[in-house]
Amino acid sequence: MAIYRLCMAIVSISLFPLASYCRARGHSCQFMAWKRKVTGGFLAFIGFMLSPLSWWNDLFVNVPLALVFAWAVSFFFKPAFEPSLIVGYWLTNVLGFVLMQKGGEKMFSKEDKPYSGRALLRDVGISLLYTALTVVLVETVVLKPIATYFKS
């Protein structure tokens, strides 16, 4: 949730003025609705890029973020590199689902809804299912190193 709030603070401060500023300046409700939709769209886009729904960009987004997380953890405890790499990858996927959900809610609703524990459990469950599917594909040799595809 802290990362979500940080993203919201950056978007709200840098791209758009605060709602109280807009009301004080006499901006209309249409402007506020536009601001809400753009902010929600931005969050949903970032969430999509982090989520497993955009599997094609894992090598460029999720894996480097997980690697930085693993480096930070292994700086303090070297044997934790591999587990922290996996945990960091899962966290980027869960964060992607959270940001997509919050972005969609922001775009299509008129008021913010709190992110519930049930929604978090659902997002974690979806990420774990995606990970399990990937493990099954590796174990059944559907996914394998590229060199083995070309050997006879």
Brief digest:
With 152 residues, the protein is mainly alpha-helical. It contains seven helices and no strands.
SSE order and pairing:
Blueprint: H1 2-15, H2 19-24, H3 29-50, H4 62-76, H5 81-108, H6 117-139, H7 146-149
Helix pairs in contact: 3-5, 4-5, 5-6
What this model shows, in words?
With 152 residues, the chain is mainly α. It has one domain (2-149). The protein is 74% helix and 0% strand. Helix 3 (29-50) packs antiparallel against helix 5 (81-108). The longest helix has 28 residues, at 81-108. The mean pLDDT is 77.
Query: How many independent structural domains?
Result: 1
Mean pLDDT: 77
Report the helical percentage: over 70%
- Rg over CA atoms, rounded to whole Å, is 19 Å
Following the backbone from N to C, one meets helices and strands in this order, namely: HHHHHHH
Question: Which class best fits the helix and strand makeup?
Answer: mainly alpha
